[in-house]
Amino acid sequence: MIRTENLTKNYGSDRGVFDVNLKVQKGCIYGFVGPNGAGKTTTIEILCGLVRPDSGQAFIDGIHVNPANMSKIKGKIGYMPDIFGVYEQMSVWEYLDFYGAAFKIPPKKRKSRIEEVLALTESSHMIDYQVTSLSRGMRQRIGLA
User: Fold this and answer.
1) Residue 83 lies in a domain
2) pTM of the shown model
3) Within a domain: residue 56?
4) How many folded domains does the chain comprise?
5) Beta strands in 50-108 (DSSP E)
6) Is residue 86 included in any domain, yes or no?
7) What share of the chain is helix, strand, coil (3-state, %, to 5)?
8) 60 near 1, Cβ under 8 Å?
9) In contact, 53 and 7? CB cutoff 8 Å
């Protein structure tokens, strides 16, 4: 499902990702653990197509991660960083509506989609809360929604 071959992204001063070879089979749970600066986030960003490697290759479900294949890749993976940008003065509803519009979900479908993802993440009770009032864990929940 996930495969890298000699994946490298060099930021200088021994920073980056160097010759990473991974093979994670479908259905496996893989822990990506290491100290700060070890290259975990950079590797994931390369796998998501957010950063281009200096050399090496990455594959998701056999599809080469490159600009030409990004629509296929995005249909197979998702990425939510530990800390993500939020518009803190928005309510949870406004926040999800904003992102729904950004992802071009038509207004008529957006309301039901927001209700669906809030139910899925057990966050419906927070619909009118200000994002700024939420704990980090609750913000993560809304980010997932």
Assistant:
1) no
2) 0.69
3) yes
4) 2
5) 55-60, 63-64
6) no
7) 40, 20, 40
8) yes
9) yes
| Residue with token string 């296929």 | 72
Does 114 share its domain with 69?
no
| C-alpha to C-alpha distance for 99 and 90, rounded to whole angstroms | 12
- Say whether both 55 and 106 belong to one domain: no
Cβ proximity of 90 and 133 under 8 Å: no
What is the distance between the alpha carbons of residues 111 and 95, in angstroms, rounded to a whole number?
Answer: 12
**Residue 110 and residue 70 share a domain:** no
Q: Tokens in use for 135?
A: 């704990």
Q: Specify the residue for token string 């281009």.
A: 52
Per-residue pLDDT of the chain (145 residues; tens, 9 = 90+): 999 999 999 988 877 899 999 999 998 888 888 888 889 989 999 998 889 999 999 999 999 999 999 989 988 887 777 766 667 688 999 999 998 998 889 998 999 999 999 999 999 999 999 988 888 889 888 888 8
Are 46 and 59 within 8 A, CB to CB?
A: no
Contact 47, 60 (CB under 8 A): yes
**DSSP assignment letter at 27:** T
Furthest-apart CA atoms within the chain: distance in Å: 51
